[in-house]
Amino acid sequence: MNQAVHQLLQLILQGITWFLRTIEAIWVWSWAQVVSVFNISWGNLPGWKIAVALISIAVLAAILVLMFRRGLHAFRRIAAAFWTMAITVFGILVLVVTAGLLRVGSHGWSQASRMISGKSSCDRGRSFRGRWVPPLRIVRL
Question: Model-level pTM?
Fold first, then answer.
């Protein structure tokens, strides 16, 4: 079983290697064709080849401009999403800090008011893990 899986993985890797080498060969061939076009003297070419070349250059320029505009639009959307995320995180952080400050402030106020009145928390109820719990009241029917 282990050898069968190993052979299958080797077959898959060989297929991927063949695919990548084929893509590399096509890339090298196409790049060589592009370079050879720029090494040709344009003065010796017939008029129709110059026209086709100029149309191809115009089409490529239009495609590049279109890609640039779409990329810029995508960048704007991504930047807007990051900005929205940053504002949201800042808003949540402000809320948490405000709640913490209110908690600390109210805790200090309640301790100070207990000290001023001279009553401890035991007089008002019992404490359970640092929280005030009101005393139980028994209701008789």
Answer: 0.45
